[in-house]
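[job 4417] fold queue: 2 targets
>>> target A
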Amino acid sequence: MSTYKKAYIAGGCFWGMEDLFRTQPGIIDTEVGYQGGENDHPTYKNHPGHAEGIELTYDPNETSFRVILDYFFRMHNPTTIDQQGNDKGSSYRSAIFYQNDEEKAIAEDMINLVNASGKWQGKVVTTLEPWSTFWKAEDYHQDYLVKNPNGYTCHFLRFDESFIK
């Protein structure tokens, strides 16, 4: 019986997020897809209201939801509304799709830590959204930057130091 857990987040183009998260300790698997939108079976060309997100499968014996969110807040800009880099629109919003009250409380705590740190010039605008169906993106989006090493990304680690003290 698997003890793995899943986390669902969005922080701009899913390619870069997946590429950075795949190397983190405790991350077992990554899938990119669409979440939080208006239609069933969204596609890249038809995903109104959906964020480009990522499903992370992780081993809670090696990492935690809090550690995942700490990395999330260091590898994208959570202070820009509906934008990461050149990508603009609600598809590129910063969002945490919490699955229960515990995850929501952890997310709220992390947002408070990030804001209190003063590392970002603005306040965090990451939305906290109840979990909704995660729709896997098309195969050509999966592992995109592995398949296309010179492909576009706006994600990079902005702060080496953790927000968690």
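>>> target B
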Amino acid sequence: MAALASWLDARAHGGRWLVRIEDVDTPRCVPGADHTLLRQLADCGLVPDEAPLWQSRRGALYQAALDTLVRRGLAYPCGCTRKDIETTLAAQGRARERHGELVYPGTCREGLHGKPPRAWRMLTRGAGRVDWTDRRLGPQSQEVEREVGDFVLSRADGLWAYQLAVVVDDAAQGVTHVVRGEDLADNTARQVLLQRALGLPAPYYLHTPLVLGANGEKLSKQNGAAALDTSDALRCLREAGRVLGITGDAASAAGWLQAATREWARRWVPPGPRQ
């Protein structure tokens, strides 16, 4: 659904629609899933304007960004395990916050204390409140140091963190408008901090509503979501459109996309010169 929303947003703005395979967490990637996804998008008439980009092939760019942060004193090595963090927080009497995520207590900010380095973290000390505006959700705010702590840029297993990868790639691809699911809105303040630290432009953000399962959680294979069947493209587009609040209809997938683009433009593209 987020793919459809981003396609409509690109068309409504007269821009390019880019597809990125965010596969930095390679152990969790199912072989062939990327090509299945691209085929399903094409079945629905959603074809990127440039060749798709695989993040798993772009480690050198992420390393260069990390090196820049280290030189600027904004990133540091961390030797803490998850158990170490839990123990420290418990000793401080701090309950786990933010939907069960551990807020890093800054243990390794001043050194590793004899521990071997495991990960690299972004220094959030003094970051204050990060304010940003979502095109759908409105004004957003987060105290990153208090609510998240110094977040991971490069993991203990050597894999790159989502936060760093998307910031680097958004800038490298010239992305001006990011459209993605509402479950990722909480990440945005961290990405804004990284953009500022690396001297990169901040895109406009729009976070779409989620398709929820019977348990109220995001619909996924873990809670019974059926595999997407794109053999009937028009039906797929209509179903996704209903969640996005698109009321129009047409007799073909191509016709539906044209009508939906006009409806999206009326709702989400301000009058006057396009952004």
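[job 4417] complete. Note on B: The first strand starts at residue 20 and ends at 21.
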